[in-house]
Amino acid sequence: MPDIIEIVISALLVIAGLFGLIGSYGMIKLRDTMQRLHAPTKATTIGIGSVLIASLLHNYAVQGHLSFHELLITLFLFLTAPITANFIAKTYMAKHVAEDEVPDSGRDYGWTVYDDPPMSAPDPVTDPKE
Amino acid sequence: MRLLPHPLLSLALAMVWLALVNTVTLGNVILGLLFGWAIPLLTAAYWPDRPSLRKPWLFIGYFLLVLWDIVVANVQVALIILFKRRDNIRSEWVRVPLDLTSPEAITMLAGTITMTPGTVSATLSADAGCILVHCLHTDDPDEVRDTIKSRYERRLLEMF
Q1: Which of A43, A72, A102 is opposite residue B77, by nearest beta carbon?
Q2: Residues A27-85 pLDDT 10s
Q3: Are B130 and A35 inside 8 Å of each other by CB?
Q4: How many domains does chain A have?
Q5: Which of A25, A104, A127, B1 is 20 to 30 A from B73 (CA-CA)?
Q6: Is residue A114 part of a domain?
Q7: pTM of the model
């Protein structure tokens, strides 16, 4: 294996470790749950991304075959990470953030955490007719 | 019922299947296409008003832009965590009114906001006309709102 690829892979792994560490440190340093949410959703995506690119390169340059699993992991991560963060944020808001602490929605209806959505026709999927 | 209710979803499913088995053989391609054909048909009932992407090719540019922003976001958030004193981190709630209407487009925008610079989308207004964003550190909440609207929402509006 040429040295240059070895160096690139090592560099990627070091970057990944650094960002993972900073993300975890953020969990200690930041003040409340809403702030802490920022640390794992951001500082770790680049960490995981670097590990995956390193793995991709290693598979290709050392083992000599292209692996697509890393791309799939990236795809699933992008699909799931924002949804997890959103659920944590909503749960936290419902329990610990009063309605007057956040800005008004400026609409006829308030935020979903505090206010019910407008009544609409029954959903054919969730409310099937008997 | 159309034979291919969602051609893009079919293609995506076939690609995911090929990536999952990790070997491109004729059998796997046929099996992947079979899944791509059957799964959208079987799940069509769960997508009553599925949107059609008007300009799907714009998605590639959008994806690359978001990818780049994620890298920038990572570095920014890391710097804030490392070098800002705890008391100097000024978090703000930012209200972003939406022009997007389809649930799928709003979901994509909310996901993008969460993955990019120092912002997490927290909740929607009950009539889905406005999104509440939590910003880790900002001196100017209005600028955050304008960036989200001009950088991401405008592109999504073109796409859907």
Answers
A1: A43
A2: 888 878 888 888 777 666 788 888 888 988 888 887 777 778 888 888 888 888 888 88
A3: no
A4: 1
A5: A104
A6: no
A7: 0.78
